[in-house]
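Model the whole thing, not chain by chain.
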Amino acid sequence: MPILGIDLGTTNSLAGLIEKGRPRLCTGEDGSTLIPSVVSFDKDFHPCIGIDAKKALATESKRTLYSVKRFMGRGRADIVHWEQQLPFDLSPSDAHMVRFAIGEKTYTPIEISALILAKLKRLSEEQFGAKIDKAVITVPAYFNDAQRQATKFAGELAGLEVVRIINEPTAACLAYGLHKKATGTIAVFDLGGGTFDISILHVKQGVFEVLATNGDTALGGDDFDHEIALHLRTAIVETTGRDPWSSVETRTALLVESERIKRALTDAPEVCFSWNGFEKQVSRQQMDQWLVPILKRVEGPCNQCLSDAHLQKQQLSEVILVGGSTRMPFVQKYVRELFSKDPINTLNPDEVVAVGATVQANILSGQQGGMLLLDVIPLTLGIETIGGTTSAIIARNTTIPVSASQQFSTYVDGQTSVEIHVLQGERDLAQDNRSLARFQLKNLPPMPAGIPKIEVEFVIDANGILSVSASEQRSGQTASLTVNPSYGLSAEEVEKMLSEAYANAESDFDKRFLIESKTSGESLVRAARKSLKQGSHLIGQAERDNIERAIAELEAALSSSSDYKLIRKKIEHLEQSSRHFAELLINDAMASALKGKNLANPAEDP
Amino acid sequence: MLKKAVGVEVHFPHSQLACWKCRAAPSDLPVCSRCGAVQDFPDGLSHYETLGLGPSLALNEEELRNHYYALCRELHPDQHIDKESRQSIYSLRWTTAINKAYQILRDPIQRSQYVLQLHQVDTAQLKPALPFKLAETYLDLQSDGPMGKEIFEDFKKEMLAEIVKNEQQWDPIARQFDSGVDRPSVLRQLAQYMANQKILSAMANDLNKRWKE
């Protein structure tokens, strides 16, 4: 069974696998490999996902969720500064996990992402003709542990075992390496819809070693759109006195329009912006000026990344551009100046991450010999020590799998237990870092302060899963856990979510397909019967019998089966059986038309 | 088998145990040369032994990297996913140890510290030997108020020159270490080098911080 490679993006999602050595991505209803990461709910709360949901953005802004990736693994407190920008509502309850409020229901970012993943799964199963229950999913390199676990959990809800979480810039590098036998020191500059990553890799003889990685998980094309919208809003307010920010619909519409302008200015030097009678010319130069302060935010992470990799920018052999936002001429120019190098953008920046995911999926299937990925942890791991400081145990950019330990002791005479508080981040104070987990080492025999020898060991496996264990040498007491943050949910809630998701996802989707397939099947039967009636003189008995048999089989499936896959099969079978007949019918109809005669009288009933 | 697959010179110790799969004894490490099964990672291997290297101080970093990549290609858990779970576990243990060994040995400073540790040389007692004038200027700058830019730039140049001069000591020491000749004396020199290097980088860091203020 193949493993699916998935790019779960802020703006668009893609999925695929390697077939006969070449990457192949599934397509949505519009034939594009990009499936918008948008989910819209109708009044009965049936979800619509992808291109059709995107159409509902401006009209149903309160029931349409987008850029949900920005909320993964985040609590309400984390998003306070951009909460104002959102057209949809957040539920007032949760401190640990953001919840979207739609009508009287609430949804978590994980559930929404799961819907998107389930759609990708379904499209891929249909188009590649194989059952899929495993996947490799990409995340921004700078995602912390909570954000990664949230992504994994979303996969599980969608019915996928996530065998690996892989970093997006690394995936892009794999795609580039597949495309061109790469060797050298490569920087990947990944600016997508919501996140920015910079990674530096060393590639040689099929080994892709990540040297360092850095980024900003809240910086991307969405911020460009927002900045443009703010400038346009000012112009509108000054000229017309009306404020587009005053209603959710107009605010969203302005954001959508700003995105359109941004993309149009990639190819044209100037575009016209019109809004309810107000008109303004916007030039590319002007827009670039507006966006400079936002793009400047990439400099810090880029310099830090070079420093962590112990490299000067001259030592890089290539800079690869990834992510839709790198299409903008202004971003390309900025990168060229920042690295004193012409960046490479020969691969489709929208597809390259997904292609990389398919490569890693292939490696993990044992099908891609000769390629190996050595990745790193992006953020320092440590524990809280006396005074509320963080003691680092594994430094950021350490290659995984890895294990490391440190010795600690007690600070109070007679202390019989210690709390191990696991943290992730670069700050000195524990409160400024991300809390991953807490556990206790109990039943220590009372000893004077400073005497116990407590060894804390961190182990990260090849999948990036962290296990922490603690032991006191003198007494032999031990305690351990595998870090599995539940972001504020109890174990019961998590289990309930999982089982509900499996039940609902399957039945909701199956129900919809069944309806769709039955409708197509029924109209095909009607059309086939009609054609046979009118054109049977064009074909022989054997062919006629064949077609009749196919019609009968389809009718049987339609009336008795609730398996949409069977119905689809029978539809295909009938279409195949009558293909030759259909051609003859068309030729005959044309010939008759030319003679002034028609094959079928529209007055006759089918 | 590993030697051929890896394509580089490797010297791994033998295991104390027989191969768990084909019973060949004593088993090779990390991979049985008869049946190709990955063996468990034994306790007590040094970083050098973990990488199948001789205990050299003057390692060429490019060669070391190629060596590391070759080992990863053979032993990384991703290459053993569809094997018996025992091989998956053993390959994970080997790769974890290899990553740690590579992290220490690839950096000349950490490698030197490790070598001193292996030879149980006590570095705590050593006094760093710096040019008197340099130490004097540094102490003066510490006690005065804000320093003038010119004085600072001059001192910084001197410091950098001293750091470079010290760094150049390392190469001949490393090569002498590898030759095995007069080991005790070489170890003393190495320890002295490390003490000097430590104080110089501490001074440089301190100056950078002060200048930023």
